[in-house]
Amino acid sequence: VLEGMEAMRRARKWTWATTETFAANLMSAFVRLPQYTTAKLPPIHLSENREWNDALRLVRRMAKQEARHDLPAISLVELTASVRAATTVQLKGALVLAWSCAGRVGDVLQLEKRDVWLTNAERKWQLKVYFRRGKTVNSSGPYTIYTQCPEELAPDLKLALDECEETFLFQTASRTARDAMICSIRQLLRLNRPELELRAIRRGALQH
Fold first, then answer.
1. Which residues of 162-186 are buried (b: 16+ CB within 10 A; e: fewer)?
2. Residue 188 CB coordination number (10 Å)
């Protein structure tokens, strides 16, 4: 699997960030293997393989190193300030989740409550997120992210999960609701620096 992924990376001249996304999609596909075959094969959990985890750590490190540092990126300190300034549970949770996943804000706002799992194990907040909608899904299909949530911000995301009584985690089922939320998030980011855009969250997370 690793040799095949490396061959594709070289042949298609992927960036390390693209390779990281492909690896996440691959992990999800192997877990769902029984859905794609009649051979009664069991799920394959690549995350339980040491060689795979070592390779994934390398890919993530390279993705962070190649991230463009000349573009505005928000720091964890600045993001925390934005979270504290947010006036709703949904805004706080969306900011935390976008940072933790290093994902597009528009994709994060289309998540359903059932797609997000947050657990506290060994004093670390483990996060699993399944993306079924969004720009990335439109181009490469649904995928799952396994990551960690910053300890100081995890309670804000947990509160958003606990209080959600609707299908969509951030009450953004409609395009109008998502656009309003995006506008609010952009304003919160610019409390730190006026030049910050939504992409600053992903850049900051990758550089952190």
1. eebeeebbbbbeeeeebeebbebbe
2. 22
Half-sphere exposure (CA, 13 Å, Cβ side) for 114? Answer: 3
- The answer to whether residues 94 and 107 touch, using CB atoms and an 8 Å cutoff, is no
- Contact between residue 72 and residue 176 where contact means Cβ atoms under 8 Å apart: no
Low-confidence ranges of the chain (pLDDT < 50): none
**Cα–Cα nearest to 52, from 25, 22, 23:** 23
Q: How far apart are alpha carbons 107 and 53 in whole angstroms?
A: 26
How far, in Å, CA of 148 to CA of 206, rounded? 13
Q: What is the pLDDT of residue 70?
A: 58
pTM (predicted TM-score): 0.66
Distance (Å, whole) CA 11 – CA 60: 20
